[in-house]
Write a structure and sequence with these properties.
Strand content: over 45%
Helix content: under 10%
Order of helices and strands: HEEEEEEEEEEEE
Largest sheet: 12 strands, antiparallel, barrel
Shape: globular
Oligomer: single chain
Structural class: mainly beta
Number of helices: 1
Radius of gyration: 20 Å
Length: 269
C-alpha cells in the first residue's frame, strides 16, 4: 500500500517521535509521524486494512510497526475469498553522517492464506537494510531498502516449494506545497528461485516480480486527522518452470501484467 510506504518514510526520518503528535498531522512532512488506521478498496473489490504504530526507544533510535490484512469480495476459482496478511517492522538510527544520515534494518513477513485443501498458500520473510539518501530538494525524500527473501509455497497437502531470493524497494515521497498534499512513489523488484522440497526432484522454478506504485494524498478534515489517498499499482510477473535444474526448450513460461487502482482513507491518532 502507498500509505505504508509514506508512513515508513515518516518514521525513518523522525528524530524524536512519541506515540502521538499533538500537532496537526502532515503526511507530506517527513520530519513528523503519528500512529494511524487505514482502510481501502480497489477496483477489483478487494478490501485492505492497516494499523501503524510508531515511536522511539531513545533519541535518534526510531521504529514503526505495520499490520495489514486484505480480503477479496469475489470468490476465486475454488469458490473462496482469497486473503493475505503482512507484518512489517522498521528500526532506524541516526548515524551522524552527511552522506548516510540514517540507517537501520527491516523485517517483512508476507502470508497468503489457504482457504481449502486444494488451494495454494505461501509464507515469505524478507530481512533487509534500509537507509535515507539526502537529496538536493527539500520536498523529495528517498529511502532504499534491500532485503534477502526466504520462504515456502504449498499447494494442497503435499506439494511444497522452498523459495529464496532478494527484494529491492525504493520508498519515495514528494511534498506538494504547504497544504499537506503529497505524492508517493514506490518501485519494487523481487526475484525468487524455487525448488520442490521433495527429494530427488530436478524441477526448478524462477520468478521476477516488478511493481510500481504511485499515489496522491490530501487532508479531508479541518483538524487534519482524516486523509484520503488515491493510488495506482502496475505489476508485471514473469515466472518460469523447468526440469533438470535448468531452463531449456521445455521450459514453461508465463508473463502477467496487472493494473490496480485503490482509494483509501486514513485516520491519525
Amino acid at each position: 500500500m502507498n500509505k505504508a510506504i509514506l508512513t515508513i518514510a515518516l518514521a525513518i526520518s523522525l528524530s524524536g517521535a512519541a506515540w502521538a503528535n499533538d500537532a496537526q498531522p502532515d503526511p507530506s512532512d517527513l520530519t513528523a509521524v503519528n500512529s494511524f488506521a487505514y482502510g481501502a478498496v480497489d477496483n477489483e473489490g478487494k478490501l485492505n486494512g492497516m494499523l501503524g504504530l510508531a515511536g522511539n526507544y531513545s533519541e535518534g533510535n526510531n521504529f514503526i510497526g505495520l499490520v495489514e490484512h486484505g480480503v477479496t469480495t469475489k470468490n476465486n476459482q475454488l469458490g473462496k475469498k482469497a486473503q493475505n496478511s503482512r507484518l512489517r517492522y522498521f528500526q532506524v538510527l541516526d548515524t551522524g553522517s552527511d552522506i548516510l544520515p540514517q540507517a537501520g534494518f527491516s523485517v517483512d513477513y508476507m502470508k497468503d492464506w489457504k482457504s481449502t485443501n486444494a488451494d495454494t498458500s505461501s509464507d515469505i520473510v524478507a530481512l533487509g537494510a534500509i537507509a535515507k539518501i539526502p537529496t538536493p530538494w527539500q520536498a523529495l525524500s528517498l529511502y532504499p531498502n534491500v532485503a534477502y527473501v526466504k520462504g515456502k509455497a504449498k499447494q494442497g497437502t503435499g506439494n511444497r516449494v522452498d523459495l529464496s531470493g532478494y527484494q529491492l524497494n525504493l520508498f519515495g515521497s514528494i511534498a506538494l506545497g504547504d497544504l499537506g498534499k503529497y505524492l508517493v512513489i514506490q518501485p519494487q523488484f523481487m526475484h525468487l528461485d524455487g525448488k520442490p522440497s521433495k527429494s530427488g526432484s530436478n524441477a526448478k522454478l524462477s520468478a521476477n516480480i516488478f511493481k510500481v506504485k504511485t499515489g496522491f494524498g490530501m487532508p479531508i478534515s479541518d483538524n487534519g486527522k482524516w486523509w484520503t489517498e488515491l493510488s495506482h499499482t502496475y505489476t508485471r510477473s514473469d515466472a518460469k518452470a523447468g526440469q533438470s535444474g535448468k531452463f531449456a526448450d521445455g521450459t514453461l513460461s508465463e508473463i502477467d501484467n496487472d493494473h490496480k487502482v485503490e482509494l483509501g482513507v486514513s485516520y491519525y491518532f
